Amino acid sequence: MSKETKAKYSYDFPRASVTVDCVLFGLSEDKLKVLLIQRAHDPFAGKWALPGGFIEMEESLEASALRELEEETGLSKIYLEQLYTFGDCGRDPRGRTISVAYFALVQAAEHHAKGADDASAAEWFPVDKLPKLAFDHAKILDCALTRLRAKVRYQPIGFELLPRKFTLSQLQRLYELILGRELDKRNFRKKILGMSVLEELDEVEAGGARRPAKLYRFHRKQYDALVKQGFHFEI
Amino acid sequence: MSKETKAKYSYDFPRASVTVDCVLFGLSEDKLKVLLIQRAHDPFAGKWALPGGFIEMEESLEASALRELEEETGLSKIYLEQLYTFGDCGRDPRGRTISVAYFALVQAAEHHAKGADDASAAEWFPVDKLPKLAFDHAKILDCALTRLRAKVRYQPIGFELLPRKFTLSQLQRLYELILGRELDKRNFRKKILGMSVLEELDEVEAGGARRPAKLYRFHRKQYDALVKQGFHFEI
Fold first, then answer.
1. How many C-alpha atoms does A176 have within 13 Å on its Cβ side?
2. Number of domains in chain B
3. Where are the beta strands (DSSP E) in A93-166?
4. Peptide bond into A93 cis (omega under 30)
5. What number of other Cβ atoms are within 10 A of residue A131's Cβ?
6. B47 contacts in A (CB within 8 Å)?
7. A44 falls within a domain
8. Are residues B33 and B139 in the same domain?
9. B222: part of which helix (H) or strand (E)?
10. Phi-psi region for residue A27, left (φ > 0), alpha (ψ -120 to 50) or beta?
11. Which residue in chain B has the smallest CA separation from A85?
């Protein structure tokens, strides 16, 4: 398309702004946590929010999300999945803003967040003890939690959240934290072992437990196949 | 926020345009079809594309999608589900454009599309016999088909696509069209009846068939519950 033709299609009417926001879930201190930043600038200066910001014209949406995440929290090399796009009128006091939200699961303990750039602080918060969030970020977070809860029903989960070697109790606890309720131990073990995604190791948990628990790790090939193929985990 | 403060946040830097695009799937003449419009204007004048267009500043994303769909095809009252947001640089020759895509399942036979506004024509095309599409719409359509194929694995499907009363052969044919391959009749019937979403009627198919087939309809309450709860349909 020539420059002239292109100019013909340069719309003069008002345009919305486009932002990206990231919901990072992590597991630490026996809690499901989400990464928040404290906003350095108005609107909502001093308030907690999801890391994110305006897209640049020359980068893809995912690249924008990764850049904002790194600028504001120092975290990089995160595998982001697109969650949903939020575009209601009035969700941003600065004017019409469309936000493309992403989400990811990471090991919180390995990702020490540090506020920088437009964020005066970055911290992991337990999902059941959140501060009041800026914009419609409570709604975005809620949408991410719903997606995460749906995911455990048709995909194996945990690879990104647990340490490489873990006990069945740790895995059950992860499911309980995500679902927000306790699960029957016997039933859980039967189902999770029936999935054939776990490899039993010839090792036990370190530490002073009276009856040290066996350690497991995910059978990556089988795990990836199940992620792709899907199943129904009736819990 | 005051007008002055608001002005402070009115960004002067270049902004992307935001559009919505709709992927409507329908069933007719024993084919899975998608609704396309023929573009009346440049770029891609005369080419086929998904119905869609620029959002207005005062309407939600979904309202924009419904408006564009009605303007360009005459179809209204469609239940749209957000699919994915496409924002790669260079996907629109007019400049950076972010498109929020929606999709829906409808009965093609009941939705006679008619081109209008920015569309010189609107037509249902079989998904396996598509014309070359404008922009990255082939990619968007592909994403919608993938989502539809994934959906049949964890949700009942067909309520929006089939007539109110249908035979098991019709339902199987729908699954085959979506999955793009033949299914074993006995196995399919066993599984679909096991879902308990079907109600057997005291009626048979009209017409001259030698062995008229029984008619079924969806048990709406059970169907809705399964959509919500999910399952795994191993096919």
1. 15
2. 2
3. 97-106, 119-126
4. no
5. 12
6. none
7. yes
8. yes
9. helix B220-229
10. beta
11. B85
pLDDT digits (tens, 9 = 90+) for A168-199: 999 999 999 999 899 999 999 998 888 889 99
Rounded to whole angstroms, the Cα distance separating B115 from B32 reads: 20
Lowest model confidence (mean pLDDT) among A154-163, A195-204, B47-56? A154-163
Put simply, whether B81 touches A (Cβ < 8 Å) is no
C-beta of residue A12 within 8 angstroms of C-beta of residue B46: no
The answer to whether B61 contacts A96, with C-beta atoms less than 8 Å apart, is: no
- Chain B environment of A55 (Cβ under 8 Å): 16, 87, 98
Give the model's confidence band at A112: pLDDT under 50 very low, under 70 low, under 90 confident, else very high.
Answer: confident
Please tell me if residue B56 touches chain A, with a CB cutoff of 8 Å: no
Closest Cα of chain B to A71: distance in Å? 20
Query: Which of A6, A85, A100 has its CB closest to that of B93?
Result: A6
Q: Do A80 and A140 fall into the same domain? A: yes
Q: For chain A, what is the mean pLDDT? A: 89
- Strand-pairing partners, residue B31, are B28
pLDDT digits (tens, 9 = 90+) for A98-111: 999 999 998 877 77
Residue A140 backbone phi and psi in degrees, to 5: -65, -45
* Structural domain of A159: 153-229
Specify whether A130 is located in the same domain as A164: no
Chain A contact set for B6 (CB, 8 A): 93-95
Q: Does A6 touch chain B (CB under 8 A)?
A: yes
Considering the domain architecture, whether residues A109 and A29 belong to the same structural domain is answered as yes
> Quick count: other Cβ atoms within 10 Å of Cβ A44?
17
Closest CB to A87 among B14, B60, B96: B60
Position A40 in a domain = yes
Nearest CB neighbour to B95, from listed A10, A54, A153: A10
> Are the beta carbons of A6 and B54 separated by less than 8 Å?
no
Look up the ipTM and state it.
0.89
The CA–CA distances, whole Å, from A198 to A137, A177, A214, A232, A233 equal 36, 20, 12, 17, 15
- Examine the domain organization and report whether B35 and B115 are in the same domain: yes
Name chain A contacts of B10, Cβ cutoff 8 Å: 94-95
pTM to 2 decimal places: 0.90
Residue B2 belongs to some domain of the structure: no
- Residue ending a domain, among B137, B152, B167, is B152
Same domain, B108 and B167: no
Confidence of residue B235 (pLDDT cuts 50, 70, 90): low
Which residue does chain B place closest to A86, by CA atoms? B61
Q: In CATH, what number is assigned to the domain containing residue A200?
A: 1.10.10.10
Same domain flag for A100 and A212: no
Q: How many CB pairs under 8 A join A and B?
A: 110
